[in-house]
Specification:
Elements lengths: L2 H17 L12 H4 L11 E9 L7 E12 L4 E12 L4 E12 L1 E2 L5 E14 L8 H4 L16 E13 L3 E8 L18 E16 L2 E15 L2 E12 L2 E8 L11 E9 L3 E10 L10 E9 L19
Antiparallel strand pairs: 1-2, 1-15, 2-3, 3-4, 4-6, 5-6, 6-7, 7-8, 8-9, 9-10, 10-11, 11-12, 12-13, 13-14, 14-15
Length: 326
């Protein structure tokens, strides 16, 4: 393993106790339940979504994130119900975070044009580590004269957590907010007073054009969207543009906060998606533009969303959210 990679991994592990942050998906609208529980049931048909992200692949074994979700709308109750599981693993010690939650949303018409969807997510939070796979200083010292380090015994951490959100929308505009980790689950293996910091997401966008409806959906659209999040004193913003022409989706995003830091930003993100009535497949790549440009290798992300259109949910159709699917 290159020395630079070793240094980066050591810094990451040392900072996890005080500055741990949630994984971030570039295709956050392809993982809508992860972005906000209000998206549960926000489709005419039941949906299955699978997402995978490989961040900084040039550094062996750093960040791999997996997500799977299923949701459906219940027209008799104007409600959506879903389940979401995420698994994030980092480093040679398999430091992992697992979240499994049940989500609920309710659609409320405010006016004839505007709706609001509050949502909640009750989840189990689990933190794990394989201490025997870590590489300590004795393994990096030529000759190995330093005695091996034996850590005190510890147990993996399991706790409960809660998130809530709300989305306001009409046929062309949407805006939402999510507040996560309201129960501040524990994140220390040795019982220290260390908790996952609260995360806040503010997101929204506007669909600028739409032409030629096909099965109640536009076959060509241009959409501008953004997502701002903060957690534990850190901030991140994503601003981008989507262009969809049936069956292809193209996207370009900028991640960073201009003029706040000395860096040009974190990444430029390119997206290519393929969309049919039932199946949505997306691939994106993060081109790193921060100080890690020569070390990280960017990030790869793959999404797959399948809608079970053969399953009828009833005669009542929901008000469709105008946000993109990637």
């Amino acid at each position: 393993m290159p020395i630079r990679a070793v240094h980066i991994i050591i810094i990451l592990f040392l900072s996890l106790k005080s500055f741990g942050q949630d994984p971030t998906f570039s295709q956050f609208y392809a993982n809508q339940l992860y972005l906000a529980p209000s998206f549960a049931g926000a489709s005419d048909y039941p949906r299955l979504a699978v997402n995978y992200r490989n961040q900084w692949p040039a550094i062996p074994g750093v960040f791999h994130t997996y997500s799977i979700s299923f949701d459906r709308y219940m027209p008799a109750f104007r409600s959506g119900l879903g389940v979401l599981a995420t698994y994030d693993v980092a480093g040679s010690g398999d430091l992992s975070t697992t979240n499994i939650g049940i989500l609920y949303s309710y659609d409320i018409p405010i006016t004839r044009e505007w709706h609001v969807r509050p949502g909640v997510n009750f989840k189990m939070h689990h933190l794990g580590l394989n201490i025997y796979k870590l590489v300590f200083s004795s393994s990096l010292t030529p000759g190995g004269v330093t005695p091996p380090l034996i850590p005190p015994p510890f147990e993996n951490v399991t706790d409960i957590d809660f998130a809530t959100s709300a989305i306001f929308y009409n046929d062309d505009i949407w805006a939402g907010i999510t507040v996560d980790h309201l129960l501040r689950p524990r994140q220390s293996f040795y019982g220290d007073d260390s908790q996952v910091p609260v995360k806040v997401n503010v997101f929204g966008g506007v669909q600028l054009t739409g032409r030629s409806r096909l099965r109640r959906q536009y076959t060509e659209t241009v959409t501008i969207a953004g997502n701002f999040q903060t957690q534990g004193g850190f901030y991140q913003s994503d601003v981008g543009l989507y262009y969809y022409r049936n069956p292809l989706m193209f996207g370009m995003w900028y991640r960073g906060i201009p003029f706040v830091t000395s860096q040009a930003g974190d990444a430029i993100i390119a997206l290519l998606g393929f969309k049919t009535n039932d199946l949505h497949i997306g691939y994106s790549y993060d081109f790193t533009i921060s100080n890690l440009v020569t070390s990280s290798g960017g990030a790869h992300e793959i999404s797959l969303v399948y809608r079970f259109s053969a399953i009828q949910l009833g005669r009542t159709r929901i008000r469709a959210l105008p946000c993109p699917d990637f």
